[in-house]
Amino acid sequence: MNPGDLVVRKSYGGDVLFRIEDLSSDLAILKGTDYRLLADAPVQDLSIVRDPESTIAAQQVRVKMNDTIKRRQKEQQASISGRMPSAPANQAFFEVPGKVLHLDGDSNYLRKSMQLYTTMRVPAHGIHVHESRMADILLRLLPEIQPDIVVITGHDGVLKNRQGQDLYSLSSYKNSQNFVNAVHVARQYEKNRDGLIVIAGACQSHFEALLQSGSNFASSPARILIHALDPVYIAIKASYTSIRDPINLSDVIHGTISGVDGVGGIETMGKYRIGMPIPKLMESAPPQAGIV
């Protein structure tokens, strides 16, 4: 085995597909390819995967992901076509979906996220930054980028060696305190939860603390692993829901791969706007996502 190899853990029944990040004589450091998970495992517990599409877990994730993308695309088209019922059929208008600022502690997951934003035509700025520095980065970038939606995510998890069994203590989590600190900065910038939508958390994050600190949506109510793109799906839904309409909580949560055990939130108004007429100097190209 070598760093970069795709593997599954025998003792877990091959439930999650990993890539080997680092390797010693008897221990491997693993990173989930689809789930925001860092783990270690004995080398003898690992089995190399030659064809990642052959694993049941990978197939289930991709089916769910494709279904979710198709549903989002249909929703967007239906939303756009019905946005101006009183306007003449031939009246052109332009779209202003909500702008996203996405902070991610993992560069690979960030790249996947930005690809999805681009596919769904959501204007987005992506920042790869360690979880411990997210609060400081937000303090600088929020007034500069002025986003409608902020995504704060990366790696997290319940610590194995935590003192006691207190899942309601932030000290029991790898990065939940860092996420909470970043949410506090976002709320100092904009206190109104409809003024700035905050989506925060990663695998097994302290759901209650993130909501109490000011998040609109957070993970993870049941302290489970969440899919790497779950926060992105919520951001896309927020970006393309009209400012006149609340985001459908049941729809957006059940539309994620992790579902209600992985993500939760509170009632929030959308960020999508339209305008007319189309300015003569407006670029005809759809909004593009980019990594900063």
Give a structural overview.
- This is Sporulation peptidase YabG.
- Pfam families: Peptidase_U57.
- It comes from Paenibacillus thailandensis.
- Mean pLDDT is 87; it is low at 84-88.
- The chain has seven helices and 14 strands.
- Strands 12-11-10-9-7-8-14 form a seven-stranded mixed beta sheet, with helices on both faces. It has a five-stranded antiparallel beta sheet with strand order 4-3-2-1-5, with no helix packed on it. The protein has a two-stranded antiparallel sheet with strand order 6-13.
- The longest helix has 26 residues, at 56-81.
- The chain folds into two domains: 6-54; 57-278 and 283-291, Rossmann fold, CATH 3.40.50.
- It has 292 residues and is α/β, with parallel strands linked by helices.
- 42% of the residues are buried.
- Helix content is 30%, strand content 19%.
- Helix 3 packs parallel to helix 4.
